[in-house]
Amino acid sequence: MTVADLTSGSSLSSARQWRPELGLGHRSRAREARNLLARVVMWTAFLIALIPLAWILWTVITRGIGLVLEPVWWNNSQRGITSRMVGGGAAHAIQGTLLMALVTAVMAVPVGVMTAIYLVEYGRGRLAKTVSFMVDILTGIPSIVAALFIYAVWVTTFGLQRVGFAVCLALVMLMIPVIVRSTEEMLKLVPNELREASYALGVPKWKTIAKVVLPTAFSGIVTGILLGLARIMGETAPLLILGPYTANLATNLFGGFMATLPTMINTNRVESLQPAIDRTWASAFTLILVILLLNLAGRLVARTSKVRN
Amino acid sequence: MAKRIDVKDLNVFYGSFKAIEDVSMTVEPRSVTAFIGPSGCGKSTLLRTLNRMHEVIPGGRVEGSVRLDDADIYGSDVDPVAVRRTVGMVFQRPNPFPTMSIGDNVAAGLRLNGMKDKKILAEKIEASLRSANLWNEVKDRLSKPGAGLSGGQQQRLCIARAIAVAPQVLLMDEPCSALDPISTLAIEDLIGELKSTYTIVIVTHNMQQAARVSDRTGFFNLAATGKPGRLIEMDDTQKMFSNPTERTTEDYISGRFG
Ligand SMILES: Nc1ncnc2c1ncn2[C@@H]1O[C@H](COP(=O)(O)OP(=O)(O)O)[C@@H](O)[C@H]1O
Ligand SMILES: [Mg+2]
């Protein structure tokens, strides 16, 4: 930039503000007013966006917190409790939700991360384009369609029972594209210079990916996995179609019913008696809490691992 | 252990675009050779063909031969990964691995190539950092991240990392262009010391730098944008800067273009 540029006003909004004889120029009332206006608009928009969030949280917490604070809520199932009875807990549903999320993640994370590595680090030409297109299609699949697809394969074609594992399969379909896309973004954020630095040391490509690229992107990938998990833990359609609710504790993903928080909410929701209504809010609050805690835990893991290398 | 580089009839392509045409040159061992020339004339491209980094870029292709002493690095049975262990590289922007500590950065090349012995690694880390004139500044914080160093220190860390794998040749692509004058001076001093051990090729935008650090200088130019770059003239640095043979070299060095 030259003096000529400055004095001709090309880099200032108006020549009026440039008063060399005053050294630094005037405070501009017009600019301050515009600044204030922009600030007010921004804050208003922010608050408006915040209203629904605060409202939901307030409603769920105030109505749900009573039951959630009782130890029995975390330790007991709903075994033997009818809708007109107070008592019992959500342990069966929490356990089912976590178990299904875990099994889903075990299947979806390796596939998703490997696919992203292929697309970013290796993929060229037709095959890569096709894979990427498939992921786009998967992203667009509504959860109920994924659930019906698994139903058609699992129940109609193979004649199997509706069980937890079938839910997991549907959730895998929903989770894979989330993980592929988020991992892809994170891998693309790793500067190419780091890969080149590694190649220039005589490190083969696969080792560069394993020891330089993935560690650099690690915390981002973990965050993406957590967002994927958060998404599938609140997913309801596959549960309604493939994973019937039960009031009892269950750990068998291949036989019998298994409770989850969304189906527990849904089961209690249709009741009109106060104990069931309370349980609805409490299980909704619990679901939010569980997802929140998982997020926090994951962030902690990501942070410590980054420092450790 | 330094090696001579013989480049013969080299053409370098990006897909169908020919970036460099018909370059032949010899780089003597234990000397510093500088590449100068206007932007886009292919200095970086040529440098990257000397350790087969060019082919990492999709579409990157090379014709002709590059010999290290008597071995053609583009021979059909040569593993590019092995070439890069022999010919190290330092980049324009310091690029330490952000997930690794200072010590781990230096040891990265050895460790990623399978070296596990802690004692040898520690020795190599110290020796390389000493060679890079960085040991005294970082010896008390080897386990801290490399990103916490200044730009000049980071670049010396990258040089230490490159020499830790015991290369024969060291390529540097404008290693000082992102650094302040003091750090630049430190790196130039370092280059002067390293040339007793390595063959060094340095690309630089800075003519004074080429004059200060190099024994021989190659001047590159292109006829027009979109045309391939060529080696116009290569000679002893003193001669190049006092009495070049070619008219364009003189014009470039005296600042008439570029
Ligand atoms: N990755 C690339 N893909 C295609 N063309 C490239 C690439 N890198 C450099 N080039 C082209 O090759 C020519 C030489 O570039 P480069 O070697 O970077 O020049 P220099 O280092 O001398 O400034 C330029 O015309 C540049 O546009
Ligand atoms: Mg360059």
Radius of gyration computed on alpha carbons of chain A = 27 Å
CATH architectural arrangement of chain B: 3-Layer(aba) Sandwich
CATH top level class name of the largest domain in chain A: Mainly Alpha
Give the mean pLDDT of chain B: 94
Please state roughly what percent of the residues of chain B sit in beta strands, choosing from under 5%, 5-15%, 15-25%, 25-35%, 35-45% or over 45%.
25-35%
CATH superfamily of the largest domain in chain A: MetI-like
Backbone shape of chain A: globular
| Helical residues, percent of chain A | over 70%
Number of separate strands of chain B: 10
Number of helical elements of chain B = 10
How far is the N terminus from the C terminus of chain A?
43 Å
The end-to-end span of chain B amounts to 36 Å
Main sheet: strands, sense, barrel of chain A: none
- Alpha plus pi helix count of chain A: 12
Considering the protein shown, what is the CATH homologous superfamily of chain B?
Answer: P-loop containing nucleotide triphosphate hydrolases
- Low-pLDDT residue intervals, each spanning 5 or more residues of chain A: 1-15
Summarize the structure in words.
- The complex is a heterodimer of chains A (309) and B (258).
- Chain A has 309 residues and is an all-alpha fold.
- Helix content of chain A is 73%, strand content 0%.
- Chain A has helices at residues 3-7, 29-68, 71-75, 91-122, 125-140, 143-157, 164-189, 192-200, 205-233, 237-242, 261-269, 274-308.
- In chain A, helix 4 packs antiparallel against helix 9 (205-233) and helix 9 (205-233) packs antiparallel against helix 12.
- Chain A is globular and about 80 Å long.
- With 258 residues, chain B is α/β, with parallel strands linked by helices.
- Chain B is 35% helix and 26% strand.
- A six-stranded mixed β-sheet of chain B has the order 6-7-8-3-9-10, sandwiched between helices. In chain B, strands 2-1-4-5 form a four-stranded antiparallel β-sheet, covered by helices on one side.
- The model of chain B has no long low-confidence stretch (mean pLDDT 94).
- The chains are: A mainly alpha (309), B alpha/beta (258).
- Adenosine-5'-diphosphate (ADP) binds next to strand 2 and helix 1 of chain B.
